[in-house]
Every structure is written in structure tokens, then in C-alpha cells.
């Protein structure tokens, strides 16, 4: 099977449910001048109704047919994490969203599996929800942001979540959100073009230097957008580890040893970059991704994969075999 591990799903009534749960915290659903449903936060536009490709499963399946994709791993859109809400309300929304993701996967079990949203501002609640969706709903893991409303992923408070994720053998898909430096990147869509890969790189560097991967070497971490800039600067991280005491305090090996534990999707938008990623980390660490249905995604992920200088075995691995192994999917 060809399996797309980076594809987002947003239920049609997501804004209405967010307004209902977050009404006490400044969330309100309205229609804008063009008749589009929008979500206001403290009276200011916050989210707009997602286009049909996010929610219409029949449309999604028809596009997958055109792409040659047999299965998608459905994940939430990062805009709906709501890490800034009180944890109890964020958990209520996450549970609602996860149940809808579970319904979508159950409707076409040969075409979809799911990863969850969890309220990372409360690691104990996040761990409990991860356990619920994995054990009761058959989810394969969770998607989390590259920072938790500004908190980095090496925050000691997150320890219960990492411990549970490793114990469950759950995939943790790290996706950029609320990126650092956004104030300097308002023009030219740079918050997306530069900010997204930067924030992913910072998140993983913190996980490495903060000792999270030293403590939990069996964590299954999948990085969006081919890992951001991190795969191309690991030599600089190793150099820093060699010469700076502060980089050695919490880890016993060079950063490149931990980078080798990570998994990456194929979204590079560059044949040379994809070949570099595969050449450095191995075809067994790279998985097909599209970022469906965002415009910055790859609308033809298999075509992009075929453009590289890969043999048939590598193409099969990246196209689906790695996903079957990582996400426990029966081929």
C-alpha cells in the first residue's frame, strides 16, 4: 500500500463545538461578510471554516485515488489544539475531536487510521487521553505542536506524557504551530515558509539537548516537513556538543546519535533535499507525506518520490512499508 502519513482532518462542526466549549474564554462562532463561518476569540477573527477537502471524506477518497494513495493517517489541524484554553476545556474539545477522527477511521478502516489531539498544557490529562484513544479507539498515536503555547518540549512537566507514549508504543507526530519569530515574518508568508521548519528544528533540538531522547530512546517521533532544518544542520549540533559544556549537561552522546532515532516525512519540495534526507538517515526513516489539503503541501507525493534516484526497495519502503511498521498497519 501507498500510505500518506501527513494528512489533516477537520470535522465540519469544529468551529461550533469550539465556540460551545470555549464560550467562557472568549470564543464565539459567527459568519463573516462573505457568509463564511468564523470563530472569534475575544471579538477578533481567529479561525475560518475549513474548506471541504478537510472534512468531506468522499472528496478525500477521490483525491487519494487520483494521487495513487491507498491510505491516509488522519491527524488534526494544529489550529485546533487550543493549548491556551484551561486544561479541562481543552480535554473536552480534544475528546470530541478524537471521537470524530475515530468515526472517520472506522467508516473506512482500509483507507484511514488516526492520530489524536491531546491537551499538552496538562501532561497528565494528555497521557490519559492518549491511553484512551490507543487502547479503546485503536488510534496509532497523537499529533502535538512543536511548542506548547510557548513551552518547549523538554519541559520537565511533560515527563508523564513521554513516559506514557513510549510505554504505549505510540507514534508522536510533531507539527509546527505558533512559531517563534512570527513578528518578524509577517511578510511573504515567511511564518510558514521559514517559521514552520525553524520551530520544528528548535523543538527537536530541545528534545535532544534536554535529554528526553536519552531517557526515552524508544519514543517513535515523526517530524513534519522532512524535519525542518534539523537534518541539514546536525553537524553544527555535534560541533556545539564537542566544544560547549552547556550542550553536554543532559546527554551522553553527540546529537547526531539521537537524530538517527527520528522519522521524517517526504515533504521537501526538492528532489535533491529528499535524496539528501534519505542518504543521511536511511530509507527506513522516511515516510510518504503530503500535508493534505494545505496549499503548502505536496499534492502529488508519489510523483515527488518517484523523481528521486531511488531503487524499487527504497521506493516501497518510503511509499508504505515504513508506515505499516511504524503505525502497526496490516498491509
Quickly list its features.
331 residues, alpha/beta, five-stranded parallel beta sheet, three-stranded parallel beta sheet, 11 strands, 15% strand, globular
Describe the structure in your own words:
Helix content is 44%, strand content 15%. By secondary structure, the protein is α/β, with parallel strands linked by helices. Strand 3 and strand 4 form a beta hairpin.
What's a quick, concise take on this entry?
With 331 residues, the protein is of the alpha/beta class. Helices cover 44% and strands 15% of the residues. Helix 1 packs antiparallel against helix 4 (87-107), helix 4 (87-107) packs parallel to helix 5 (123-137) and helix 5 packs parallel to helix 6 (159-168).
Major beta sheet summary: 5 strands, parallel
Element string (H = helix, E = strand): EHEEEHHEHEHEHEHHEHHEHEHH
Coarse structural class: alpha/beta
CA-atom Rg in angstroms: 19 Å
Described by the principal axes of the CA atoms, the overall outline is globular
Mean pLDDT: 96
Number of helices: 13
Distance between the termini: 6 Å
> How much helical structure, as a percent, in the residues?
40-55%
